[in-house]
């Protein structure tokens, strides 16, 4: 048997095994978390290693406890979810409003320091958040925005706008400039060419960038802790989940239910936008 044939047979056998192993490693923690969230606490203590839930064991009381308001004896996660959605969606919208024209300008327009500015956008993201924590805490306290979702929103937009511009700039560079030049010959202005040509073709990158921004804003913990810890009614989901994990009075099943609630929106958004994330919409856009 030749070496090439041996390698092909080996890859044929190993490829599904490697894929299955990676899939199990990625899915199993979430699956086990869901199983724990539906099991009664007494059954979990008797058999913590059980990997499935029988129909008679299913207990949705943990989710009721997590979602019920504090006044009703629950953990108040409905308020946290609302706060996180408001902050995350507003961060996505404002960041894209800044990043799309900024990325397009860096990609298409010629101006002094264009390359240096593009590099600075990425350099901003290299600074760890902890370096900015104390100055921002002091600044927002003095201007009266500590404890406000508006202050948290400003920090998130400032944190992700630079890297969003850098990521979108790279995608705009892949769109043939000749398409916009053809639109200009037909009478389109620069803004019209951007709106009618560049933005539709860049939609996969814009959607993936929006998903990236949403994930950061939804899961962020440090600044939420600094700005909102004194205002429970303004807490985000990540901050509420840390409160559950730090309490010895909260059962593990309730903690797992909170973790599922934190993770589920990201998974749903990913599969909902999968069709736009894959595929190059520029394929075949330019004729030879």
Explain what the structure shows.
With 288 residues, the chain is an all-alpha fold. It contains 14 helices and no strands. It has helices at 3-38, 41-46, 61-67, 77-108, 114-126, 129-142, 149-174, 177-185, 190-201, 203-219, 222-228, 237-245, 252-272, 274-277. It is globular, with a radius of gyration of 24 Å. The relative contact order is 0.13.
Give me some keywords for this one.
288 residues; mainly alpha; 14 helices; disordered C terminus
* Largest sheet descriptor: none
First-residue to last-residue Cα separation: 45 Å
Order of helices and strands: HHHHHHHHHHHHHH
The proportion of residues in beta strands is: under 5%
Rg value: 24 Å
Shape: globular
Low-confidence stretches: 280-288
Describe the oligomeric state of these chains in a short phrase.
single chain
Task: Count every beta strand, where a strand is a DSSP E run of 2 or more residues.
Answer: 0
Instruction: Give the helix/strand class.
Output: mainly alpha
Q: Mean pLDDT, nearest integer?
A: 83
Give helix % range. over 70%
Total helices: the number is 14
Task: Provide a compact summary of the structure.
The protein has 288 residues and is an all-alpha fold.
What are the SSEs and their pairings?
Elements: H1 3-38, H2 41-46, H3 61-67, H4 77-108, H5 114-126, H6 129-142, H7 149-174, H8 177-185, H9 190-201, H10 203-219, H11 222-228, H12 237-245, H13 252-272, H14 274-277
Helix pairs in contact: 1-13, 3-13, 4-7, 4-10, 4-12, 5-7, 6-11, 7-10, 7-11, 8-9, 10-13, 12-13
């Amino acid at each position: 048997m030749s070496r090439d044939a041996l390698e092909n047979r080996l890859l044929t056998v190993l490829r599904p095994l490697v894929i299955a192993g990676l899939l199990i490693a990625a899915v199993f923690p979430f699956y086990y978390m869901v199983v724990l969230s539906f099991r009664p606490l007494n059954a979990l203590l008797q058999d913590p290693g059980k990997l499935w839930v029988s129909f008679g064991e299913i207990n949705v009381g943990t989710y009721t406890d997590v979602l019920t308001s504090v006044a009703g004896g629950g953990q108040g996660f409905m308020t946290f979810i609302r706060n996180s959605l408001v902050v995350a969606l507003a961060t996505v919208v404002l960041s894209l409003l800044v990043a799309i024209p900024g990325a397009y300008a860096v990609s298409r327009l010629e101006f002094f320091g264009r390359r240096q500015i593009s590099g600075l956008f990425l350099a901003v993201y290299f600074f760890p958040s902890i370096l900015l924590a104390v100055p921002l805490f002091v600044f927002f306290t003095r201007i009266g925005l500590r404890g406000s979702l508006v202050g948290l929103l400003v920090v998130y937009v400032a944190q992700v706008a630079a890297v969003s511009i850098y990521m979108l700039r790279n995608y705009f560079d892949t769109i043939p400039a000749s398409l916009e030049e053809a639109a200009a010959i037909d009478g389109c202005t620069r803004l019209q060419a951007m709106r009618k040509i560049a933005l539709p073709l860049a939609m996969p990158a814009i959607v993936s960038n929006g998903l990236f921004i949403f994930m950061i804003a939804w899961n962020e913990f440090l600044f939420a802790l600094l700005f909102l810890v004194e205002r429970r009614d303004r807490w985000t989901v990540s901050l509420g989940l840390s409160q559950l994990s730090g309490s010895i009075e909260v059962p593990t099943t309730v903690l797992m239910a909170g973790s599922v609630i934190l993770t589920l929106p990201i998974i749903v958004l990913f599969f909902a936008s999968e069709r736009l994330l894959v595929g190059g919409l520029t394929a075949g856009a330019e004729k030879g």
